[in-house]
């Protein structure tokens, strides 16, 4: 029989759920940065539109998409926590 007790844990996590939670938090943090950058870019597009109807419409659409993305990013941890708790209770 193989003895795996001599192997060290290379990732530093004690369980799979700790690893998954860490990875999800990392992805969410990165997504927040992207959503904030999208908000800034949409704001700059809105400023640079200077009254041009087509550019203002494009900037408004970009702003709405950025806000929706930010809302999704803030709701995602709640969904992940709910799913994790549901699966771990089973």
From TrEMBL:
Keyword Membrane set for record: yes
Tagged with keyword Membrane: yes
Domain of life: Bacteria
Keywords: Membrane, Transmembrane, Transmembrane helix
InterPro entries: T4SS_pilin
Chain segments annotated as transmembrane: 20-42, 63-84
Protein name: Transmembrane(S)protein
